[in-house]
Write a structure and sequence with these properties.
Blueprint (H helix, E strand, L loop, with lengths): L15 H9 L5 H5 L5 E4 L3 E2 L10 E7 L4 E6 L2 E9 L4 E7 L4 H4 L5 E6 L2 E3 L2 E5 L2 E4 L9 E4 L8 H14 L10 H7 L4 H9 L4 H32 L9 H5 L8 H14 L6 E6 L5 H14 L3 E5 L3 H15 L6 E4 L5 H12 L5 E4 L13 E6 L7 H8 L8 E6 L5 H7 L4 E5 L10 E5 L4 H13 L3 E5 L18 H15 L5 E4 L5 H12 L5 E4 L12 E6 L7 H8 L10 E5 L5 H12 L3 H12 L2 H4 L18 H17 L9 H10 L9
Helix pairs in contact: 6-7, 7-22, 7-23, 9-10
Bound molecules: adenosine-5'-diphosphate and magnesium ion.
């Protein structure tokens, strides 16, 4: 008897070697294969007469082999098997590449069903490498055939054979995790129907019904987990802190914008609510989030607790430390910097001061939360520019707090589509900063090819002549943790070599510097600081300057090989200019002739709206880029597609929130299976649901 627990290696045709390969796909038992969902489907239902075979898509034809197949050796590594087959209406000439065994399989007079594209070549019909099965024993023709994600050594037919067994023999008693009432309300089919039809749909309508149910289920379980998290957090006690934005505003060198004021009011209200704050401040690049973060740090210090401000890169941490020091030291806030490059005695002294409560605001990278870093009384954690700063990290932070969990404030530039935000930040309250400080002129963005390089360098010279500064950005995989870039990237040497070339040949009379992720942090800091002080005219850099860096005098950014970046990342980069009163430019350089690549880049030239760009990026590149290398700590989605299933996500989320509001801990008997599934889904982040 086959059950969902039957190991795949118990099945005929799956030996230890294949078993290992299947394990690579996460498949150990027959039940596992039910979760291995097809990527796409082939409609192999209808068998066409050769004469009537459609020319624009693959189809099945039934034909008899009319002559013994002929094999020809074209050259080493390439053999062709030619098969002539006939039905009542016509003849088809079939070619198989490198499949010598066909000769053994297909004898004259044997009938097969072939699936593939039937092409008309002159007066003849031809097929190339069709899938085939012997007439009478066909398992995978005459149906809508699932096509699965594969791995080397595992064929689609093997996998389909396994899922067929699972679907035929193991669906009885499959637990139904969605309560009946919910299924009725949202018109969702039963789990058996869904599983059967996602693998072997009777027709495309049944497939759509099955898929809808599975997408809903997946998003529902996920959002139930998030809703529970949010619920628990907001139930968690937070220490009460007082602090008025008006009092803080006196410290700022400018009047805060309306959006900054509102974000600060939201934070002030959270801090004195008695519940732990979990807030996201979303604002496009340049909207002035740093000042809002500073307000939080100021309030914490005023209330005698410590604040940790985390930045994604050392560069940004260093800049923040300087900004915070300048802004808050006059108010008596003691600021210190801790990054990976603070070591030895210096680090010891710093940690001792932190533990003794002699530091009010510690700025740094993730080093802030590494082992051995003990706070005397951590009351507020701020994560800047962390659109990939997920649920798991926030949870880990919560544990660093002493008596009560620390308040948490996450700052992020907008470029994250609303659908994704709902999921990544599903457990947070959100303040949106939809206003730029006054006096900004929008950045003009241009797309140019190699032919404009000389003119472009001329433009650099002109800008520098007017006292401005220029960034030149090159792609590099080296320091990029997030997996934004694809394609071969300019390597490290190329960045430095390019900088030298620019200095020596192109701009011998200008001051050129460079930064990239592999430089020692001291060297990086020196180059950045020199640029900030205006001692460099041109800064050649990799994407280390992607986030946060603030040099208002920089008015021109040139981005080399622009096609290698994601749109949202380009938008982030572009945000480094246009921060002062000067008209600013961003020049995207590409040698790419791909029309889609150029189209993408033109989209960026056309708008400065981060949201719009993010939506476009999601559409073109999928959610992977936003999620990074699973740094968000959220479970991977198997069925749902963020771009396509937005409506269903909303529906599932609302249903989840209603359910969690009614039964926060999923204690009702009818929610038992759901509860189990939520736990399983978040299992990798055990701490979340302990
Ligand atoms: P981001 O939101 O991208 O982090 P920053 O906080 O770095 O933006 O601010 C961008 C620039 O705008 C900085 O030079 C900052 O000093 C300036 N700035 C911020 N708020 C205001 C304001 N209300 N008025 C004028 N300039 C501001
Ligand atoms: Mg910032």
């Amino acid at each position: 008897m086959l059950t969902r627990e039957t190991p795949l290696t118990d099945l005929p045709g799956v030996g230890p070697a294949r078993g290992k390969k299947l394990e690579k796909l996460g498949l150990r038992t027959l039940g596992d294969t039910l979760d291995h969902l097809p990527q796409r489907y082939e409609d192999r239902r209808e068998c066409h007469a050769l004469r009537d075979a459609p020319q624009d898509r693959p189809c099945c034809v039934s034909a008899m082999v009319a002559e013994t197949p002929r094999v020809s050796f074209v050259r080493r590594g390439l053999t062709l098997v030619k098969v002539k087959a006939v039905d009542d209406t016509d003849t088809v000439h079939i070619t198989f590449f490198n499949q010598d065994y066909i000769r053994e399989v297909m004898g004259r007079g044997d009938s097969f069903i072939f699936y593939g594209l039937v092409e008309r070549q002159g007066s003849q019909l031809a097929m190339t490498n069709p899938v085939f099965e012997r007439e009478g024993t066909a398992r995978f023709t005459g149906l809508i055939m699932p096509v699965y994600p594969l791995t080397a050594g595992i064929s689609n037919n093997l996998l389909a054979g396994l899922t067929r067994r699972a679907v035929d023999g193991c669906l009885d008693g499959l637990p139904e995790i969605l309560p009946a009432r919910l299924r009725r309300e949202h018109q969702l089919c039963q789990t058996q129907f869904a599983r059967k039809n996602i693998h072997y749909p009777t027709d495309f309508e049944a497939l759509a019904i099955a898929r809808r149910r599975l997408v809903f289920e997946e998003l529902f379980v996920l959002t139930c987990g998030l809703a529970q998290l949010k619920d628990r957090r907001s139930a968690g006690e937070g220490r009460v802190m007082e602090g008025a934005p008006e009092d803080f505003a006196d410290l700022l060198p400018f009047a805060p914008t309306g959006a900054q004021r509102r974000a600060m009011e939201d934070i002030a209200a959270d801090l004195k609510s008695g519940r732990a704050m979990n807030r996201l401040v979303q604002g496009d690049v340049g909207s002035g989030k740093t000042a809002v973060a500073a307000f939080g740090a100021w309030a914490a210090a005023k209330n005698g607790v410590q604040c940790a401000l985390m930045a994604p890169t050392e560069l940004l941490a260093e800049q923040h430390a300087r900004t915070m020091e300048a802004l808050l030291a006059p108010a008596g806030v003691r600021v210190a910097l801790l990054t990976g490059s603070v070591k030895g005695k210096e680090k010891k002294v710093l940690l001792a001061a932190l533990a003794a409560g002699e530091i009010d605001l510690l700025v740094g990278t993730h080093a802030l939360f590494s082992q051995g870093v003990e706070y005397r009384d951590l009351g507020l954690v701020i994560a800047d520019e962390q659109h990939r700063f997920g649920v798991a990290q926030r949870s880990a932070l919560a544990e660093k707090g002493g008596a009560a969990p620390p308040h948490v404030l996450v700052m992020s530039a907008t470029p994250i589509p609303r659908t994704l935000a709902l999921i990544i930040y599903g457990d947070l309250d959100v303040s949106v900063m939809d206003e730029l400080p006054p006096g900004r002129t929008p950045v003009t963005t241009l797309l140019v090819g190699e032919d404009k390089r000389a003119r472009m360098y001329g433009f650099v010279r002109k800008q520098v002549g007017e006292g401005r500064q220029v960034y030149i950005v090159c792609p590099s995989v080296e320091e990029n943790g997030g997996g934004w870039e694809d394609g071969p990237a300019m390597d490290l040497k190329a960045v430095t070599a390019y900088a030298h070339e620019l200095q020596e040949r192109v701009f011998p009379d200008l001051r050129v510097g460079f930064v990239h992720g592999r430089l020692k942090s001291k060297e990086k800091e020196e180059a950045m600081a020199a640029f900030t002080r205006g001692e460099l005219d041109v800064l050649v850099s990799t994407t280390v300057i992607e986030v946060g860096v603030d040099v208002p005098n920089a008015s021109l950014m040139i981005i080399e090989n622009a096609e290698r970046f994601g749109l949202s990342q380009l938008h982030q980069l572009r945000g480094r200019v246009g921060r002062g009163k000067h008209q600013s430019w961003c020049v995207l350089v590409t040698a790419s002739r791909s029309e889609t690549a150029r189209e993408r880049l033109r989209a960026l030239c056309a708008t400065n709206d981060g949201f719009q760009i993010a939506e476009e990026d999601l559409r073109l590149r999928g959610p992977g880029d936003f999620f990074g290398k699973r740094q968000h700590g959220l479970p991977q989605l198997k069925v749902a597609d963020f771009a396509a299933d937005m409506e269903l996500l909303k529906e599932a989320r609302e249903a989840a929130e209603a359910l969690i509001a009614a039964d926060p801990e999923l204690k009702k008997p009818s929610h038992r299976l759901l509860k189990k599934r939520v736990r399983e889904l978040f299992q990798e982040n055990g701490a979340l649901f302990s």
